[in-house]
Amino acid sequence: MSSGSKKLFDTTTALGRVLAFFAVSALCGVLVAGLMSPALALTGGAATGATEALAAAPSELTSTPPGQATRVLAADGSVIANLFTENRTDVPLEKMSPNIKNAIVAIEDSRFYEHGGVDPIGILRALATDLAGGRQGASTLTQQYVTNVLNEQLVAQGQSADIVLNGQKGVSDKLREMQLSIALEKKFSKDQILQGYLNVVPFNGNAYGVQAASQYFFSLDAKDLTLPQAALLAGLVNGPAYYDPSQHPDRAKDRRDLVLNAMLAHGYISQREHDDAVAAPIQLKLNPPREGCASAAQAPYFCDYVLHQILNDPAYGADPTARLNKVMLGGLTIKTTLDPRLQGPAQKQVDSTTGTNPDKWGASLVTVQPGTGKVVAMAQNSRMAEGQGSGFVTSYNFNVDSADASGNDLGGAGGYQPGSTMKPVTLAAWLMEGKGTDQTVDASRRRYGSNFPWKSTCGPVHGVFDSTVPGSTDLQNDEDGYYRPMTVRQGIYNSINTATFASAAGLTDFCDIQRAADALGMHQGDGKDHKLDLSTLGNLLGGENVAPMTMANAFATFAANGTYCTPIAITEVDDNQGKQIGGQSQQCTPGAVNPDVAKAATNVLQDVLTKGSGLLIPQKLGVPDAAKTGTNNENSQTWVVGYTQGLATASFFGEALNGPSVRMGRDITVNGKFYPVVDGAYIAGPQWAGYMQQVAKYYDHGSFDAPPQRLISGRG
């Protein structure tokens, strides 16, 4: 019994049982009309104060509905995951087999349709049994429903410790239960009460309500329960653990047959139906529920991302705890943008990239649809729980900002150094100023000292590359032979650092690089509120961490001819009544990047795959595509970010856990192959191409629009 409950009598003594008898008898005298018939409940001469109290009582039962499971769905309606504190899915009475309705009434409350919420005959019979030293329950289905609803409210409010178990209830508890039951029968029909009871009552620790129980024990819906199955479930409510058929089949069969006997005695079934059901063996088809994103049927890290979109959104509650309760207890339907046609190939691709992977190298893919911002695939080669595939286990989401993901003890997701995949930002700034892709810049220059005359209207440019300055070095390219004048186009497709710096030095305003990054939605990996700092020279070459999804979405802006869209993953959120309560609408800005600039950037990035660093990627998509490779200084974080007209994908391979020490991507063996050094085109590249080969066909994969000639030649 709860510490806050007060016993009016000690019913464990003979005197206490006698006093309890008279107390309940007195109550019966006051409420006799309500006890005898639902039609007469609380009418006639009951005291006005008592009547008002009882009439108001059902508000206690409707303030917090029992928790239901939330479903997270892919774009095609397939299930991603179920999220719940208690596995429950409400169904209307008409979607329950008549067998379960009849079985429950027969075994639990055969006078259910005759009494007004409290059964005086049952009470007197139980008291007589108790006074004789035995034990007899007297709660009607309505009283049991009241008890279960009140208990569920305590669970929802985090007060499970205050639940009073049936064997611990005092007279005051029973009186309150009776009051609520009688008032409930005034407001609701018998069918409504029976429906509520069958949806709330626990049948198993993993199955609350008849729909969840039907799925758990038999892998079918409540409407399809046979007579033996329904009788088995009806028998469970008296002791879910004690009569569990998966653990105690003999007990379960005895209890089931007792239910069948009651159904026969009360005229719900014929003798033949009874005998056939008693002769039927117990046949279970257990279907334990998989709860949470870690147990998702597909895309566990996308599920986690979706969950954090809701937990971070005040529209779903005043604080994260309220939002989590809404998800775990609210029976929501969360419809998402995930496309299973892409997700399956993405998951297979990242798993095959690293194989058994004892060194825990990370591999990931994330895809955004240009022009909509929809995140349609998100995969990585780790798993969120033990025993799931051969991947290593981490809650760390490789693809998203730290603010949008669960993190492990290393601090959560926060992006990686994108290396040369940042170079198209400087290219965009160059094009924004009307300069041409085929203009020549001096890529032989390697020193940019503190006195270099950068043209910047928004503040100083930070950083130096100058070997004459202590602690600094001259600017390095990956290979010798490229310290020479070349076109901006050649500098991009061959990924030449000195060409990117020469382009930046040739800008009318260095601040245009920051403006280009902002227009593409670029930001630091910890969250959208922190812009990349493009006033620091090292960041032109990808020195600051950026999440793969941010990179994919930036390149999607090029693919959409300059239309920037905020990434979205949730199309609609419905409550347990089917009413829409949320979702993420498309937020797109046409012309965020000048359309001609975007077309010209795409024109250059196409050359990466046909003339430049992307030539090392053996697979070819066979449709128009564009991309950029990237590698950080330690070769530990490598990329290809590329797109077709309809899909933009960031492919990452490297040190994904961001551990305390830097791990070099040199002289390593991955999936049985030795690499003296890892470059973006070596592992991330084939991963990107192998995946995109399979999925490009599902979305627009036509030709890109040609850029204007003035942005090729640089002459108006």
TrEMBL record:
Source domain of life is Bacteria
Keyword annotations of the record: Carboxypeptidase, Glycosyltransferase, Hydrolase, Multifunctional enzyme, Protease, Transferase
| UniProt keyword annotation of Transferase present | yes
| Domain annotation Glycosyl transferase family: ranges | 77-263
**Ranges of residues in domain Penicillin-binding protein transpeptidase:** 364-645
Stretches the record annotates as Disordered: 344-364
Does the entry feature the keyword Glycosyltransferase, yes or no?
Answer: yes
- Catalyses which reaction? Preferential cleavage: (Ac)2-L-Lys-D-Ala-|-D-Ala. Also transpeptidation of peptidyl-alanyl moieties that are N-acyl substituents of D-alanine; [GlcNAc-(1->4)-Mur2Ac(oyl-L-Ala-gamma-D-Glu-L-Lys-D-Ala-D-Ala)](n)-di-trans,octa-cis-undecaprenyl diphosphate + beta-D-GlcNAc-(1->4)-Mur2Ac(oyl-L-Ala-gamma-D-Glu-L-Lys-D-Ala-D-Ala)-di-trans,octa-cis-undecaprenyl diphosphate = [GlcNAc-(1->4)-Mur2Ac(oyl-L-Ala-gamma-D-Glu-L-Lys-D-Ala-D-Ala)](n+1)-di-trans,octa-cis-undecaprenyl diphosphate + di-trans,octa-cis-undecaprenyl diphosphate + H(+)
* PANTHER family xref list: BINDING PROTEIN TRANSPEPTIDASE, PUTATIVE-RELATED (PTHR32282), PEPTIDOGLYCAN GLYCOSYLTRANSFERASE (PTHR32282:SF33)
Q: What is this protein called?
A: Transglycosylase domain-containing protein
